[in-house]
Amino acid sequence: MPAADDMQTPLGYALWSQKDRFEHINGPIFIHAQRAPASGQGLVKFFSQKKHLNRGGAVHGGMLMTFADTAMFAIALPALDGARAVTVTMNNEFVSAGWPDQWIEAEGELVRQTKSGLLFVRGKVFSADTVILTFSGLLKKIERRP
Question: For a designed S-S bond to 17, which of 23, 62, 100, 101 qualifies (C-beta 3.0 to 4.6 A apart)?
Fold first, then answer.
């Protein structure tokens, strides 16, 4: 696969991350263009490269948690309705290892949204048929800065 800046957007997906932002530097990360991926495809995905690996040659846990956090926002995007949000809490359970040179994807669901702007989200990070990590978290809508 080419370097991040040269990476081709996968068919049916759009670039989620923006150049010079945290997600792009660690990605790039792509989101399904219609927000409705087919069964077995993730809502968001990235291609694991050498820069994502730990000393043992697997995808670094910090990268997987960063990706899961990004996935929570992608999952909650319709409920945000243009609002900003922050992560209040996030839980991660490592199930298996992610390896280089493969697409790593995430899917999930918005479990609940409260009137006060809390969004409960859960999902999984996977590659092909292997679950790598499960996650759950809480996002909070916030006011936009002027």
Answer: 23
Q: What is the side-by-side strand order in the sheet with 118-127?
A: 13-15, 30-32, 44-47, 103-113, 118-127, 130-142, 84-94
Contact 121, 76 (CB under 8 A): yes
Instruction: Give me the chain's average pLDDT, please.
Output: 91
Judged by phi (left if over 0) then psi (alpha if -120 to 50, else beta), residue 76 lies in alpha
**Domain that includes residue 86, residue range:** 4-142
Positive or negative, the CA dihedral 3, 9, 24, 21 is: positive
Instruction: Specify whether the CB–CB gap between 60 and 43 falls below 8 A.
Output: no
Burial status of residue 2 (CB atoms within 10 A of its CB: 0-12, 13-18, 19 or more): exposed
Residue where the block lists tokens 């669901």 = 109
CB 119 within 8 A of CB 35: no
Number of separate domains in the chain = 1
Question: Any idea what DSSP says for residue 18?
Answer: -
pLDDT at residue 25 tops 70: yes
